[in-house]
Write a structure and sequence with these properties.
Elements (H helix, E strand, L loop, with lengths): L1 E2 L17 E6 L5 E2 L7 E2 L38 E3 L5 E8 L11 E15 L11 E3 L4 E22 L10 E3 L6 E8 L4 E24 L7 H8 L5 E4 L3 H4 L23 E3 L3 E3 L5 H11 L2 E6 L17 H19 L5 H8 L10 E4 L5 H18 L4 E5 L7 H13 L4 E9 H6 L13 E9 L11 H16 L4 E4 L5 E3 L10 E3 L4 E3 L1 H10 L5 E2 L2 E3 L4 E6 L3 E8 L5 E8 L4 E9 L17 E7 L3 E6 L3 E8 L1
Parallel strand pairs: 1-31, 2-29, 4-13, 13-16, 16-17, 17-18, 18-19, 19-20, 20-21, 22-23
Antiparallel strand pairs: 2-26, 3-25, 5-7, 6-7, 7-12, 8-12, 9-10, 9-11, 9-12, 14-15, 23-24, 25-27, 27-28, 28-33, 29-32, 30-31, 30-33
Helix pairs in contact: 4-5, 4-6, 9-10
This protein binds alpha-L-arabinofuranose.
The site of alpha-L-arabinofuranose (AHR) has 13 residues, from loops.
Length: 638
């Protein structure tokens, strides 16, 4: 955050403005307890958030498994690859399934060369091979591997990073394929910074089989460091994953995100169609998610399906019946054992083999994503009964449907309160920005019997161009809403914005909290609101009064008072703060302001960025002026 270049005195003038509103509170008043888990993240592989995003793999469709459901087009399996595109050989590439690398990885490519040098190029992620690119940095090292099988090839096989003309811009490594599938590995060092290709060259004649290639920056992590840093800076208390719709599966049970397909050696992970329109390599799988949680110091919160396919997409297969649900519940018990079991358990041992002897300490589990109705609640009951009997301490999360208002959510909440009162009810809603302003009191009168997890939300602005923008207005409406969430955080235990990440030019849903391209990360004003609120989480909400149009909440810990003020009007607002019991001295404030339609862009990433500065409180008073369209958080030490 930037430092604000205004003199300290501006924010600490004694009360002077005739038209100022007065905010009154006392630090000694009895407050309401707050959830220490309130702010977290929801990660889903939508908008190329995992493959093409957080997962640092540079190759697209690295194992030739890409296939739209229902499509018989062989060429789909070559998505992302340009075979002989430089037309430097006489030869062809054929998609094959006989004698594959393994059963989970059934498709590979057989290249036959008659003459010339045959080049198989991978262009990485991009909306097309021409806008994409395997983005490399001069001097950086990249781990490369590929599986090859000699099916009758006489010649030399090499790999390198190349420019768009196929000229090497890294060391060139040669491989000697054998008659059986064999993994060949090398380190490629880029000699240029470029949007490049990965090129496998065949100089000879005959048949060569090729599968499962990978090129990743050699950083010691399979995750993109700049994106991990952006997530860490949000100070998430939990991470909800892996979806969203992709967790529950669309149309067929084959499409369900099966956690067991996502662990172990990457070449043995069984890829699955991503309902958002790509393929899930599962390179970022359950183990990596758990490790990421550890790195972020966030509680893992997996979402597993409930035997019911995505209800919004008209499933073509029936939900699991009771016996099937009871059998499926074992998969969930296995997952909990994978996360929490000792190394003397079957799945705990698997976890250790995958790199973590230490358990991950799973405490939360959602069964279902956006589900509703008897068909769902019955299945939640069957499955959760088995899970709770084995693991009574786990906090379960039950879906309350995909809407904010109306009979569907009312019925869902009524059912949850009567049948599953100890589970957290998971609400999801994407509403227009003004709805958030009008509904800051939504939770004031909710019964306190069942706690709420606001698992997905975002303020939606009208579409402009092809996107709903992440503009300041939407961020301020979310900030105003969060004052209501904090006021009710005895009830709302967790909340997270959705979706989290989007690759620029490849987005499938807008708005999104963080945008990125191959080289840069773009934080939205919505991101900064989340960061400002999460970094100033109190443990107690203090009773407070403020007349006027400014949204507010006052919270405290033993060490500080946090005053959150959101001015969503086009006029500056003056507020006289009467802070009883707050000692005189220096505090600080952080502020985000600008024009309502303003956005950050890759060329102006800091157009909207919070600024921070000091303030002085004296005689339990502080007079402040809030700019039009602003959110300001004061932090006063106790
Ligand atoms: O966040 C995007 C999608 O919105 C999620 O996958 C789904 O749960 C909701 O409909």
């Amino acid at each position: 955050m930037k430092k604000l270049l205004i003199p300290l005195v501006l924010c600490c003038l004694m009360f002077s403005t005739a038209s100022a509103d007065t905010l009154t509170f006392s630090v000694d008043a009895e407050g309401k307890g707050m959830s220490d888990m309130l702010y977290g993240l929801f990660f889903e592989d939508i908008n190329y958030a995992a493959d093409g995003g957080l997962y640092a793999e540079l190759l697209y469709n690295r194992s030739f498994e890409y296939a739209d459901p229902g499509s018989t087009l062989q060429s789909q399996h070559l998505t992302g690859w340009m075979m002989n595109s430089l037309l430097s050989a006489k030869g062809k590439a054929q998609v094959m399934t006989e004698q594959p690398l393994n059963d989970s990885n059934p498709t590979y490519v057989r290249i036959s060369v008659e003459s010339g040098i045959y080049r198989a190029l991978n262009a990485g992620y991009g909306s097309s091979a021409f806008t994409g690119g395997v983005n490399v940095t001069q001097g950086a090292e990249y781990s490369f591997f590929i599986y090859l099988r000699d099916a009758g090839f006489a010649g030399i096989v090499t790999a390198a990073i190349t420019d768009r003309g196929g000229n090497p811009i890294s060391n060139v490594v040669a491989f000697q394929p054998t008659a059986d599938w064999q993994k060949h590995e090398a380190v490629l060092i880029a000699t240029q910074t470029a949007d490049a290709y990965l090129c496998v060259s065949l100089d000879g004649v005959g048949l060569l089989d090729m599968d499962m290639a990978s090129l990743m920056p050699q950083t010691g992590s399979v995750l993109r460091a700049d994106l991990v840093e952006a997530l860490r800076d949000l100070q998430p208390r939990f991470l909800r994953f892996p979806g969203g719709c992709i967790a529950e599966g669309s149309y067929t049970h084959e499409n369900v995100y099966n956690w067991k397909d996502t662990i172990g050696p990457v070449e043995q992970r069984k890829e699955n169609w991503n309902t958002w329109g790509s393929m899930q390599s599962y390179g970022l799988g359950y183990h990596e998610y758990f490790e990421l949680c550890r790195e972020l110091n966030a509680e893992p919160l997996p979402v597993v399906y409930a035997g019911v396919l995505c209800q919004a997409r008209t499933p073509s297969e029936a939900p699991l019946n009771k016996a099937q649900c009871e059998a499926y519940a074992q998969d969930i018990l296995d997952l909990i054992e994978y996360a929490n079991g000792g190394t003397d358990t079957y799945w705990g041992q698997k976890r250790a083999e995958n790199g973590s002897e230490q358990p991950f300490g799973l405490k939360y589990l959602a069964i279902g994503n956006e589900n509703w109705g008897t068909v769902y609640f019955d299945r939640f009951g069957w499955i959760s009964g088995i899970v709770k009997a084995a693991y009574p301490d786990i906090t379960l999360i039950v879906a309350a449907g995909p809407v904010a208002e109306g009979t569907l959510i009312q019925d869902s909440l009524r059912t949850i309160r009567s049948r599953f009162p100890t589970a957290l009810a998971d609400e999801h809603y994407y509403m227009d920005s003004d709805w958030f302003l009008k509904n800051t009191k939504r939770y004031d009168n909710y019964p306190r019997t069942t706690s709420i997890f606001l698992g997905e939300y975002a303020a939606h602005e009208p579409v402009s161009g092809s996107k709903r923008p992440n503009n300041l207005y939407s961020a301020l409406c979310e900030a105003a809403y969060l004052t209501g969430i904090e006021r009710n955080s005895d009830l709302v235990k967790l909340c997270c914005y959705a979706p989290l990440l989007a690759r620029d030019g490849m987005q499938q849903w807008t708005p999104d909290l963080i945008w990125f391209n191959a080289n840069a990360v773009l934080k939205t004003p919505n991101y900064y609101v989340q960061q400002m609120f999460a970094s100033t989480l109190g443990d107690t909400v203090l009773p407070s009064t403020l007349d006027g149009a400014v949204y507010h909440v006052v919270t405290r810990t033993d060490d500080a008072v946090y005053i959150k003020l959101v001015n969503v009007s086009d006029q500056a607002a003056s507020v006289d703060i009467l802070a009883q019991g707050v000692p005189g001295g220096e505090g600080r404030f952080t502020q985000l302001s600008g024009q309502p339609k303003q956005v950050n862009t890759f060329t102006t990433p800091d157009a909207l960025i919070p600024v921070t500065d000091g303030c002085i409180i004296s005689n339990e008073q502080l007079a402040v002026t809030l700019p039009a369209y602003s959110v300001t958080i004061y932090e006063l030490p106790l």
